[in-house]
Amino acid sequence: MKFNAFGQDNKLSENLQRLFEKAIKIYPSDSITLYKSYFIWFPSRNSKDIQNKISKLEGLISKNTIDRCQMVERNLRPLMVSIIDANSVSLAQSEKFTTLYSDFDYFSGQGLFSKLLKDDESHNLVWKTLSKIAQVSGKDTSYMTCMLKLSDNIRTNAEVAEGIQDLVIQSILNNPKGFLDMYIARNKEERERFAGYIFYYETPDEKLVNIYKEISINSTKVYQSAAKELLQIVENQNKNY
Q1: What long-range pairs does 123-129 form, CB within 8 A, spacing at least 24?
Q2: pLDDT tens track of the chain, all 241 residues?
Q3: Domain assignment of residue 92, yes or no
Q4: Phi, psi of 204 (to 5 degrees)
Q5: Is residue 68 domain-resident?
Q6: How many folded domains does the chain comprise?
Q7: What's CA 80's distance to the chain center, in Å?
Q8: Where are the beta strands (DSSP E) in the chain?
Q9: How far apart are CA 112 and CA 106, in angstroms?
Q10: 53 and 100: one domain?
Q11: 90 and 159 in a common domain
Q12: Domain boundary among 174, 192, 223
């Protein structure tokens, strides 16, 4: 069966077909989604398009990607089930989930994992796991680090990507001084970006703003200074929206 990208014979199209055939042997359960992704939904119009697809397929069939995808397939769902059944999450589980779900989301965008989770499991498993991590962020800023990483990494699953900012805000509310500790540890350029986490889309969260106003007045000098600087950055960013 030919999957010629241009509808005509050329070496690039032949190379794309060869790599695609390798990919569907490695990921047979995703063969239909891969075919649609590389030949139906995003048709190639020129050599550059084909070369980009070739590069993506080369990445998909690399040993590193195969190993990462196998880890997700074996461990993501059982990990979420164990967290929800126990109604608790350890830091090691949070960090493992961050890695696995980040890979799941990224490679879903490449046409993989089309059958790994059922439709309702994004809510029943993924969302409940994320919520649990946000709830325990007051224990250790490392939990918050996981939540912030997930916020940065999730792009393919629109429902989760749209809703996770609310959990980021909840996580910071559970540990506002911990967030300041993380802010203080960053350089000036990194702080500009880091301040964006207290925004709910284009608006800074009112509860967090009030908390940091209080800290800027009634806390140690280090926290007062950090809170004042954070609020100034937030104010400047808010004006630019």
Answers
A1: 123/159, 125/77, 125/80, 125/81, 125/84, 126/80, 126/101, 126/157, 126/160, 127/160, 127/163, 128/80, 128/83, 128/84, 129/79, 129/80, 129/83, 129/84, 129/89, 129/97
A2: 444 544 445 788 889 999 999 999 999 999 999 999 888 888 887 888 899 999 999 999 999 999 999 999 999 999 999 999 999 999 999 999 999 999 999 999 999 999 999 878 878 899 999 999 999 999 899 999 999 999 999 999 888 888 899 999 999 999 999 999 999 999 988 999 999 999 988 899 999 999 999 999 999 999 999 999 999 999 988 766 5
A3: yes
A4: -65, 140
A5: no
A6: 3
A7: 16
A8: 199-200, 203-204
A9: 9
A10: no
A11: yes
A12: 174
Ramachandran class of 87: left when φ > 0, alpha when ψ lies in -120 to 50, beta otherwise: left
Instruction: Give the position of tokens 């969260």.
Output: 205
Domain span at residue 121 reads: 76-174
Q: How many residues can be counted in the chain?
A: 241
Q: Please indicate, yes or no, whether residues 154 and 110 belong to a single structural domain of this protein.
A: yes
